[in-house]
Structures are given as structure tokens and as C-alpha cells.
Specification:
Layout lengths: L1 E2 L10 E7 L3 H12 L4 E4 L8 H4 L20 H6 L9 H14 L6 E3 L3 E7 L4 E6 L4 E9 L21 E4 L14 E5 L3 H13 L2 E6 L5 E3 L7 H8 L2 H11 L18 H14 L15 H18 L3 H7 L12 E3 L2 H4 L5 E5 L5 E4 L3 E4 L2 E4 L2 E4 L8 H4 L2 E3 L6 H4 L18 E3 L12 H21 L4 E4 L1 H15 L30 H13 L5 E4 L7 H7 L1
Parallel strand pairs: 1-4, 2-3, 2-7, 3-4, 5-18, 7-19, 8-17, 9-10, 9-17, 10-13, 11-12
Antiparallel strand pairs: 5-6, 6-7, 14-15, 15-16, 20-21
Helix pairs in contact: 1-14, 7-16, 9-10, 14-16
Bound molecules: flavin-adenine dinucleotide (FAD) and NADP nicotinamide-adenine-dinucleotide phosphate.
The site of flavin-adenine dinucleotide has 36 residues, from helix 1, helix 2 and helix 14.
Length: 556
């Protein structure tokens, strides 16, 4: 694989398509486009492929969608042959899988690693994008595809005194490859989101003392992970293609769960409790599907939230700690539900303490540790499990300039504006995989990735077949879509949480619900219809190679 030494793979600096990012999205995009005969190259900031699963190596990192579903479906032999060892695979196994895919489809020869893309500029006259890398290389391509990830821009709050701290600092999203041995150490963890909830039990088991700093208690359900059984594996593999089709075409989340056709209040309290208990014992996010109105009806949601709060009270022996762990400020599931192994029980350990930082926030770091509400805590190591600048962070970090030099970051300053989460008006020939305005992070993300990749690949093939090489989202179609995305979100309980879906975790970020909540199945159909109707809402044209810029504008 090529590395960025200022030059580009095999000296080539012009491609039909460049892809930024070599996670699940970038790898599959490369595979599809290469099969279609496009010249294509991937640039990846990390030193290897894997994206999320390359960077997030913290203890306990694992998927929350079952591995039989959280995996590619595009190749029948791949999905039949790969064998997952657990119901929810851990990070090392998922990373091994992604590496296997890269090797199996011979993808590495078209990937430049250790290469961070710094800017992307559209030249209207040449109708092409020019990318520059941080090391100074320039690459030109007709099309640019951002496979930069929705959860790849890790964020550490800007606490005063960071430089003064003498211990070790970690972020879950940038975990050292060699691992961290916390044995005998006094450790502070900041955050209680999904990453923290997975990491805390394992850090607690190793550290001398662990203090968890919690601003907002979160809802978590037990994973009840188990070693894969032959029978379970076969229940999928005996009809893998059919089940995958069902997941993508018939479900809202791209995942097959036990769906219910009943509302929570349509059954009596005893039956409701029984159903919650049954799902709690089975484990996983299947709990969220106990009734069909948990995410749209507050009264229904309250019944599930109460059930989980009771479970927390039963799991945590110290009543004050239990009380502090009870989530109260958002509906259950309005922040992505966490899936844990022994999270609440970890607070029963003698070496674990919980500090509430809602009323008395973290003031900053000192040479020895953290100062919170005027009190100093000394640590050998501090782990920031403080999340990501989600959905827009990785794109904002690239200086993206479209027509007339306008910046994407600026165009999205009041919230992302995208048609179908695929393209943004004013930025021709630039695609985003799982971009804001698409189901992406609300789904089994691999299902959403495959759908976007297939749609983009088909689109580029269509353009080539028809002698076209310019595509841009129509501004009105985009505005209509943004309005629709918002309307649909506000029919649910999701906007009631200060979540990263809303941009609420980043000070100063505009609060707008970013993903499309209408459902993977519904969205897929919309995208297919758009393509079938000649790419309705997009402007397709022959670029200046065939026309002058003026003629081209006239054609639009
Ligand atoms: P990523 O995997 O984020 O890859 C993007 C790549 O782009 C990164 O490697 C990054 O280095 C690279 N990149 C970004 N900017 C640049 C640049 N300027 N130049 C060069 N390269 C760049 N989803 C689920 O559906 N189920 C789960 O169980 C699940 N678990 C998760 C667990 C964790 C800890 C996290 C953080 C996320 C999880 N997700 C999960 C979401 C997960 O991000 C997606 O499922 C999926 O892995 C995203 O793949 P991607 O290729 O789109 O993006
Ligand atoms: P997150 O959900 O955004 O959680 C970040 C945590 O840090 C929150 O508890 C937040 O508190 C806290 N925090 C941030 N700034 C703080 C500050 N200044 N002071 C105190 N606390 C602060 O991030 P994440 O846990 O990394 O998860 C992000 C997403 O990645 C998940 O929602 C999920 O989609 C995915 N993920 C999935 C899994 C999985 O199970 N497969 C695991 C990890 C991640 P507030 O809530 O008060 O802001």
C-alpha cells in the first residue's frame, strides 16, 4: 500500500474518482467502482484500513448490532465463509474482518495510507476536484467521494490546563495500538456514553481506583453476549441473502429484530413488564422494539424508561449511587441506546466511584488530575470518552470549496444542507456516504453504507453511459429534503434529547436533527425512485470537456 510521502500511489495524480476514508464505506466504494472500470484511489489518514475499528481500540469496544448483521452483505461467498466467534464481535475481530475484506478483494493496491486530505476544491472550468494532502501532494479527479465517517472526528473538550497535566491522557476514539495497562493505576474516566459504558467495567477490573465523571446518566441495556453457536450461525446462513434483503427493504433500522405491532399502552401493566423482562434477559437493542411506539409516544416511552430505571436500582447496591445513575433528562432511545456488559454492576466494586459533574462541571486539568467543583482529584491516567463531532466534524476538517470557491463548512453553518444526504447544492460531483440527511447513524450503519455505495456506483455508471460527467443537487430539491428530514424527526421523541444527533455535544454547533429518521426501507425506496426517474432533483450535464462553461450553465 502506498504511503503519503508527498507523492501519490505509483506516481499517478489524476483519477476518475477519489475516495477519502478506508473504513467500511471507502473499501466497498473502491471495490464497486473498480469493478465498473473507473480509475479510483482511496486516501486514508490512518496507518491501516478499518476506520472506526482501526481507531477505537479501547477495552470493551464491540458492535451493538449483532455481527451476523453488522457485516457486509454484498458478496455471498464472503458472508457464507466468514465465521464470527461471538454474538457481538469485539473490535479486534471486526478489524480482522475488515482486513480480510481488503485482502480478499485486493483493495490495498489502490489505497494510500497515512495520508490526510486537507482540502478539496472544485474547478468549474475543468469540471474536476483537486485534493491536497497534508503532506502537500495534489490529486485531481472528476468525482470526489467522502467516506470520512460520521463518528471519526474524536472530540476532547477544550478544558483549561490540558498541557499542565503530568499523567497520561487517552481518548477512546484514538486508543494506542499497543493497548494500555491500567494495573495499579488511579484512573479517571470522563463521560458515560456508549464508549465509556463499554470501557468502564474493564478498566475498573484492572485499575487500582477508578473515578467516573458523569454529566448525563444514560440508558443502557445488557448485551448478554455469547459465543457463536453453529445453530445460530446457520439460522442466518441458510437464507442469508433473503434475510439481508428483509433487513434492508422491510425494516426501518436495517436490522432484523423481534418487531411488535402493539403499542405499549395497548397491553396491561403485567404483560408489558413481562415483555420488557423477556427482552432484557435476551439482551441487546432488541429491547427497544418491545412495542411499536416507544420512540414516538412519551407515555409509552415512560413505561420502558421506568423499567430500565428499576433495573438500575436493582443492580446498584448503594442507593445514592443508583439514584445518580438514573437517566431522567431524555426519553429512552432518544440518545442511541447503550449496550453493556456489567456496566451498572461495576459501581458495586470497592474501587469505583461516581462523580456527578452536572451541577459542578469539570473546571479543568491540574498537574495532578482534574479539578471539579473546587475539589482536586489526582490521577495517573485520564480517559476521555467524550465522543465525536458527529456527522459533520470530519467534513468540516477538510477545506472543501465548491462552485465559486464557496466553503461547505460555511454552507452548513446553520446545520447541514444536503439532498438525500448524498450531495449538497453548489458542490457538484461531490458525494457523501452516510451523509447528514440520510438514515446512517440511526441504522445498522453497514446497511446504509452499502445502499449509498450502490446508489453512487450506479449513478456514476449512468453518467458515463450517457456521456455526462457533471451532477449536482438542485437547490430547491435540497431545501425540500431538509424540510422533510426535520418534519419527520419532530414527529418522534428524538429531538427531546441533547444528543450528538442534534449537534448538542459541541458548543456552538447549530442544533438540528441531522440524520433522516424516516426509515432505511422508506429512504431506500425514495433513492431508487429518484434514480429511476432520471435522477429527479439532481442536475445532470456534460462538463466543459464537451461544452464551454457558458453553454453548460445554459443547459442547466
Ligand atoms: P469510518 O469507519 O469512520 O471511516 C472513516 C475513515 O475516514 C477513517 O478511517 C478516517 O481516518 C478517514 N478520514 C476522515 N477524514 C479524513 C481525511 N481528511 N483524510 C483522510 N482520511 C480521512 N455502527 C453500527 O451500525 N453498529 C455498531 O455496533 C457500531 N458500533 C460503533 C462503535 C464505535 C466505538 C463507534 C465510534 C462507532 C460505531 N458505529 C456502529 C458506527 C460506525 O462508525 C459505522 O458502523 C461504520 O464503521 C462507519 O464506517 P465508515 O467507513 O463510514 O466511517
Ligand atoms: P457520546 O455518546 O457522545 O458520549 C460522550 C460522553 O462524554 C457523554 O456522557 C457526555 O456527556 C460526556 N461529555 C462530553 N463532554 C463533557 C464534558 N465537558 N464534561 C463532562 N462530560 C462530558 O460518545 P461515545 O460514547 O463515544 O459514543 C458515540 C456514538 O458512537 C454512540 O452513540 C454510538 O453510536 C457509537 N458507539 C457505539 C458503540 C457500540 O456499542 N457499538 C460503542 C461506542 C460508540 P453528555 O451526555 O452530558 O454530553
Amino acid at each position: 500500500m502506498a504511503k503519503d510521502a508527498g507523492g501519490v500511489h505509483a506516481g499517478q495524480s489524476r483519477f476518475d474518482v477519489v475516495i477519502v476514508g478506508a473504513g467500511f464505506s471507502g473499501l466497498y466504494m473502491l471495490h464497486r467502482l473498480r469493478r465498473l472500470g473507473f480509475s479510483v484511489h482511496v486516501f486514508e489518514a490512518g496507518s491501516d484500513v478499518g476506520g472506526t475499528w482501526y481507531w477505537n481500540r479501547y477495552p470493551g469496544a464491540r458492535c451493538d448490532v449483532e455481527s451476523m448483521q453488522y457485516s457486509y452483505s454484498f458478496d455471498e461467498a464472503l458472508q457464507q465463509e466468514w465465521r464470527w466467534s461471538e454474538r457481538f464481535a469485539g473490535q479486534p475481530e471486526i478489524l480482522r474482518y475488515i482486513n480480510h475484506v481488503a485482502d480478499r478483494f485486493d483493495l490495498r493496491r489502490d489505497i494510500s495510507l497515512d495520508t490526510r486530505v486537507a482540502s478539496a476544491t472544485y474547478d468549474e472550468d475543468a469540471a474536476e476536484w483537486t485534493l491536497t494532502t497534508r503532506a502537500g501532494a495534489r490529486i485531481a479527479a472528476r468525482f470526489c467521494i467522502m467516506a470520512t465517517g460520521c463518528l471519526s472526528a474524536a472530540r476532547t473538550p477544550d478544558f483549561p490546563g490540558m498541557a499542565a497535566y503530568r499523567g497520561r491522557i487517552f481518548h477512546t476514539g484514538h486508543w494506542p495500538h499497543e493497548g494500555v495497562d491500567f494495573s495499579g493505576l488511579t484512573v479517571g474516566v470522563v463521560g458515560t456514553g456508549s464508549s465509556a459504558i463499554q470501557a468502564i467495567p474493564l478498566i475498573a477490573a484492572q485499575a487500582k481506583q477508578l473515578t467516573v465523571f458523569q454529566r448525563t446518566p444514560n440508558f443502557s441495556v445488557p448485551a448478554r453476549n455469547w459465543a457463536m453457536t453453529e445453530a445460530y450461525e446457520q439460522s442466518w446462513k441458510s437464507d442469508y441473502a433473503g434475510l439481508r434483503r428483509r433487513a434492508r427493504e422491510e425494516t426501518r433500522s436495517g436490522t432484523i429484530y423481534e418487531f411488535s405491532d402493539k403499542g405499549a399502552l395497548a397491553v396491561d401493566a403485567e404483560a408489558r413488564e413481562r415483555e420488557y423482562e423477556r427482552r432484557w434477559q435476551k439482551g441487546g437493542a432488541n429491547f427497544m422494539h418491545a412495542f411499536n411506539d416507544i420512540l414516538v409516544d412519551k407515555a409509552a416511552n415512560d413505561t420502558a424508561a421506568d423499567f430500565v430505571r428499576n433495573k438500575i436500582r436493582q443492580s446498584v447496591t448503594d442507593p445514592r449511587t443508583a439514584e445518580a445513575l438514573l437517566p431522567h433528562d431524555h426519553p429512552l432511545g432518544a440518545k442511541r441506546i447503550c449496550v453493556d456488559t456489567d456496566y451498572y454492576e461495576t459501581f458495586n466494586r470497592g474501587n469505583v466511584a461516581l462523580v456527578d459533574v452536572r451541577e459542578a462541571p469539570i473546571e479543568g486539568l491540574t498537574a495532578a488530575g482534574l479539578r471539579v467543583g473546587g475539589r482536586d482529584y489526582a490521577f495517573d491516567a485520564i480517559v476521555f470518552a467524550t465522543g465525536f463531532d458527529a456527522m459533520t466534524g470530519a467534513l468540516d476538517a477538510i477545506d472543501i470549496r465548491g462552485c465559486d470557491g464557496s466553503s461547505l463548512k460555511q454552507a452548513w453553518s446553520a446545520g447541514p444542507r444536503s439532498y438525500l444526504g448524498l450531495m449538497s447544492a453548489g458542490f457538484p460531483n461531490l458525494f457523501t456516504i452516510t451523509g447528514p440527511g440520510s438514515p446512517s447513524v440511526l441504522s445498522n450503519v453497514i446497511v446504509s453504507i452499502e445502499q449509498h455505495v450502490d446508489w453512487i456506483a450506479d449513478c456514476l455508471a449512468h453518467l458515463r453511459r450517457n456521456g455526462l460527467n457533471r451532477i449536482e443537487a438542485d437547490r430547491q430539491a435540497q431545501e425540500d429534503w431538509v424540510t422533510h428530514v426535520n418534519e419527520v424527526a419532530h414527529r418522534t421523541l428524538y429531538p427531546q434529547a441533547n444528543s450528538w444527533y442534534m449537534g448538542a455535544n459541541i458548543p456552538g454547533k447549530t442544533r438540528v436533527f441531522m440524520p433522516y429518521i424516516g426509515g432505511v426501507n422508506v429512504y431506500r425506496q425514495i433513492c431508487s425512485d429518484v434514480a429511476a426517474e432520471g435522477y429527479r432533483g439532481f442536475r445532470l450535464a456534460a462538463a466543459p470537456a464537451q461544452q464551454t462553461k457558458k453553454e453548460q450553465h445554459a443547459a442547466l
